[in-house]
Design goal:
Immunoglobulin-like, mainly beta
Length: 320
């Protein structure tokens, strides 16, 4: 019995050693990419402890290599003593020994960018300007040219001062008609008021303009480009032109012309009467009119026999 127990313990010990060895052999490595500007200078794999040695970063005369950083904006150098647990990219940072860069935003209360790093060849990449409310950035100037975010500046010695140039922001307010087309566009200074047109064109005579989809307050002290849409309502002919008769179910009305011979030109039939829908054109309801363009609401269900007979002037019928 003792021999069996001893043999079992030895087998378990051997198995445990094998498992530890297998786990050690199978430890994952990670990739570390070293970049200098847009150029990849090296790619390394972590060792069994999850570490790598820093790559060599070449730089021009008058430029000093500062170190490797986890982002181009980071202010803390990468710690090569810590374990790496995922694929990462490190960025080289350089400092000029011959010049410094200063940004002047041109107004109080606005934080100027800082040129943390230059390029390995001695040039530097221009920083983005901060947002300035009510103004549009027009570029950094050194007195001889304009530079924008991402531009490469070839520097000399001394202090290079880039001053922000600004232009008061002008906003665009578009007013759209019933077809969604801009019929009037206004340019408004930032925080200015956009005065809307008093009327808006529309395609069909049966509609009339009633206002805009934005309240007047939204057009005051404007801070962004706006699109304003005209709103319309259906405008039927006056009820005095028609005769209304209840339908058989008593839930709606049928309509006919009160004096057919007096109707001419454009005619828009009513949608409702006394709180009930109008759904029918009565038999011979509009015979012998001189109507040229006719609007029938889409809520109508029936046009009875000879509803529009003997209308030789009729050129267009719209169902809306």
């Amino acid at each position: 019995m003792g021999k069996r127990i001893k043999a079992l313990l030895i087998s378990m010990a051997v198995l445990l050693v094998a498992m530890v060895s297998l786990a050690s052999c199978g430890k994952r490595t990670y990739s570390v990419t070293f970049k200098s500007g847009t150029e990849t200078v090296a790619v390394a794999e972590t060792d069994k402890e999850g570490r790598v040695y820093p790559a060599y970063a070449e730089c021009a005369e008058g430029v000093r290599f500062v170190g490797w950083y986890e982002s181009e904006e980071s202010t803390t150098p990468f710690d090569f003593e810590k374990e790496i647990t995922s694929d990462i990219t490190l960025y080289a940072r350089f400092a000029s020994l011959t010049y410094e860069v200063k940004y002047d935003v041109g107004c109080e209360g606005l934080k100027a960018p800082v040129q943390e790093s230059v390029n390995h060849d001695g040039t530097f990449t221009v920083k983005a300007a901060p947002e300035r409310v009510g103004y549009e950035f027009k570029g950094w100037t050194d007195g001889s040219g304009l530079y924008f975010d991402g531009d490469v500046y070839v520097a000399d010695s001394g202090t290079i001062t880039l001053v922000a140039t600004w232009e008061y922001r002008v906003l665009t307010v578009e007013f759209l008609d019933d077809k969604g087309e801009a019929f009037e566009t206004k340019e408004v200074p930032y925080l200015g008021d956009a005065i809307p047109p008093s009327n808006a064109p529309h395609t069909y005579f049966a509609y009339e303009f009633v206002g805009w989809d934005l309240p007047t307050s939204a057009l005051e002290r404007v801070t962004e480009d706006l699109t304003v849409r005209a709103e319309y309502v259906y405008a039927p002919a006056d009820e005095s032109n028609f005769v209304f008769e209840e339908t058989e179910d008593g839930e709606a009305y049928a309509v006919s012309a009160k004096e057919p011979y007096s109707l001419s030109g454009e005619l828009a039939l009513p949608k409702t009467y006394k709180g009930k829908p109008v759904r029918e054109v009565a038999k011979r309801g509009f015979n012998y009119t001189s109507v040229e363009e006719l609007f029938i609401p889409s809520s109508y269900r029936t046009v009875k026999a000879e509803g529009f007979s003997s209308n030789s002037s009729l050129k267009a019928v719209y169902i809306c």
